[in-house]
Design a protein that fits this description.
Elements (H helix, E strand, L loop, with lengths): L8 H14 L6 E4 L1 H8 L6 H15 L7 E4 L5 H10 L4 H5 L2 H9 L8 H4 L1 H10 L5 E3 L5 H18 L7 E3 L28 H9 L20 H9 L3 H13 L4 H27 L2 H30 L4
Parallel strand pairs: 1-2, 3-4
Helix pairs in contact: 3-13, 4-8, 4-14, 8-9, 10-13, 11-13
Bound molecules: adenosine monophosphate.
The site of adenosine monophosphate has 16 residues, from helix 1.
Length: 321
């Protein structure tokens, strides 16, 4: 995850929920992508390290266990940059220009100049991030799927030249691979449509009340559409009371429930889900030096693995002296 702001519900349901459950089955590596943050925030980089530690606190509060998973910081493992450089020798520039997020993000973040080499290379750096740990699965949201497609193509091309030295990775999506924000666009900090994991109960209620619903339903007695309606997508994602969700859906379809009830119950469910995280986050933040220690320790461990991969790659490229 890029430390460009606070984590929101999209991060939680699109990625973090998988991060925690995968720990039982895999050797997991989770990292603060601070170089990736720089690709768009290079002109105001001062906030990155603060967000980095804040994000790590959220990961741990959400259940990522530093004893079982390696939590690290990208820029503390400079081998990522060397692998990126070696990959850059074989990747044709049009492959990078074709990645859909490249043009999209340039349009959406029109207030800054993203015509840089760093921004073009974003998915190539991701390729190095994953390949350096022989990563086979990457638990991400839907927006990252094209990046991983490119990654596999790059790995195949690299291996064609140098032998089977790198591994291809597949995305692992959750049940909710793309959570809409309050305005029904993808939830994203740059759209200002987020519910943050750190929002208090009142803020959550206020934000849920603003949420986009079925626009055709201008009165509570008009039958509404549940499918594709973000409020019900949220109920499915966050409300653990399945009977309540079914009852609300039935009455919504029949025009027998008001938005206020649907949203109040949703805010209650989101708050109930966030409460234990809020508690754990408070405990974790009481010892900020411990968060830093975890990130530094994890980075040291990650580095030993990255060094081994790089040794193998340098051999394959025949740059051994
Ligand atoms: P980013 O903040 O762009 O670095 O995203 C970190 C991770 O969260 C990536 O795996 C994204 O795909 C995922 N993510 C971010 N926003 C959403 C969203 N609205 N819905 C689902 N996943 C998301």
């Amino acid at each position: 995850m890029r430390p460009t702001g606070k984590l929101h519900l999209g991060h939680l349901v699109g990625a973090l929920r998988n991060w925690t459950s995968l720990q039982d089955r895999f050797d997991c590596f989770y990292f603060v992508a601070d170089w990736h943050a720089l690709t768009s925030e290079y002109a105001s980089s001062g906030a990155i390290t603060g967000y980095a530690l804040d994000n790590v606190a959220d990961w741990i509060a959400a259940g990522v266990d530093p004893e079982r998973s390696t939590i690290f910081v990208q820029s503390l493992v400079p081998e990522h940059a060397e692998l990126y450089l070696l990959l850059s020798m074989v990747v044709p520039i049009p492959w990078l220009e074709r990645v859909p997020t490249y043009k999209e993000q340039q349009e959406q973040l029109a207030d800054r100049d993203l015509s840089t080499l760093g921004f073009l290379g974003y998915p190539l750096l991701q390729t190095a991030d994953v390949a350096i740990y022989d990563g086979r699965f990457v638990p991400v949201g839907e927006d990252q799927v094209p990046h991983l497609e490119l990654s596999r193509e790059v790995v195949r091309r690299f291996n064609q030249f140098y032998g089977p030295v790198l591994v291809e990775a597949q995305p692992l999506l959750t049940r909710v691979p793309r959570l809409p924000g309050l305005d029904n666009r993808k939830m994203s900090k740059s759209y200002g449509n987020t519910i943050d994991l750190t929002d208090d109960a009142d803020t959550v209620l206020k934000k849920v009340r603003q949420m986009y619903t079925d626009p055709k339903r201008i009165r509570a007695d008009i039958p509404g559409t549940v499918e594709g309606n973000p409020v019900f997508m949220y109920h499915d994602a966050f409300n653990t009371d399945a009977a309540e969700v079914e009852d609300l859906k039935t009455r919504y379809r029949a025009g027998a429930v008001g938005d206020v009830e649907v949203k109040t119950k949703l805010a209650r469910a989101v708050n109930a889900m966030l409460d234990p995280m809020r508690e754990r986050r408070r405990e974790i933040l009481a010892r900020p030096e411990r968060i830093k220690e975890i990130a530094l320790e994890g980075s040291r461990r990650a580095r030993t693995i990255a060094e081994d991969t790089l040794a193998r790659v340098r051999d394959a490229v025949r740059l051994r002296y």
